[in-house]
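Objective 1b. Sequence-to-structure analysis of Response regulator.
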Amino acid sequence: MAKILVVDDSPADLRFLTEALAPTGHSVVSCTDAKEVERLVETERPDLALLDVVMPERNGYETLRALRRMPAAAGMKVIFVSSKGAESDVKWGLRQGAVDYLIKPYTPAQLTTLLGRHL
């Protein structure tokens, strides 16, 4: 089983993601503050991160760029999870280094399919 880091500033979205992941058997670590991500990656060493794009203080793109500079994040896959679903948003997210892009609202089945593709 994999370890998944979930990052979203919305407690409701964080809860939905965590509950959608529960039946998968993967272990889940979550946070609502993008500034905590590096510390969690250092201590938890997740296999994959589900990263919101629109967050206060530091967006998901900036967070991913910071992670790419960390040895502890080497090999960790990132999937953006965002309400920004225009084709240009998706292309930009993938160009930033994400392996996939999940557009809100989504179903638990869509999330499970993505995890199956990348884990």
